[in-house]
Q: What sequence folds into this?
């Protein structure tokens, strides 16, 4: 998958192991100095990916049809959203949908999502 030759990857890994502490200190310092900029960039990526995901999933609530993107949420049809987020992270759903994996997800507005989740209403 990587275009970097195996020999170089091995050397990079050795270098990391040999210099692990100083690399981590440097990373922490960089993060502290650029925190605002890094957070802004992440927010921008999240907003972009959310927008793409909503478009791919049809851009409207699957139950009531509302199209206001501010209230649209991604529902795990199998009801395992909390477990999925805990195991794979919050961005995993967005990444799945952008890659073309649209099951087991559907778009619901916040009200329909609550009703469906708490009443197990199908
Ligand atoms: Zn709805």
A:
């Amino acid at each position: 998958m990587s275009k970097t030759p195996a020999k170089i990857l091995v050397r990079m890994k050795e270098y990391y192991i040999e210099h692990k502490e100083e690399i981590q200190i440097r990373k922490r310092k960089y993060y502290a100095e650029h925190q605002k900029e890094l957070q802004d960039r992440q927010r921008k990526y999240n907003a972009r990916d959310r927008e793409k995901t909503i478009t791919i999933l049809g851009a409207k609530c699957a139950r009531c049809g509302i199209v206001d993107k501010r209230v649209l949420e991604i529902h795990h049809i199998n009801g395992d959203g909390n477990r999925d987020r805990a195991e794979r992270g919050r961005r995993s759903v967005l990444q799945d949908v952008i890659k073309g994996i649209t099951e087991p997800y559907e778009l619901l507005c916040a009200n329909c999502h609550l009703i469906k989740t708490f009443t197990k209403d199908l």
User: Anything to note?
Assistant: Helices lie at 6-18, 20-56, 81-88, 92-99, 110-119. The mean pLDDT is 92.
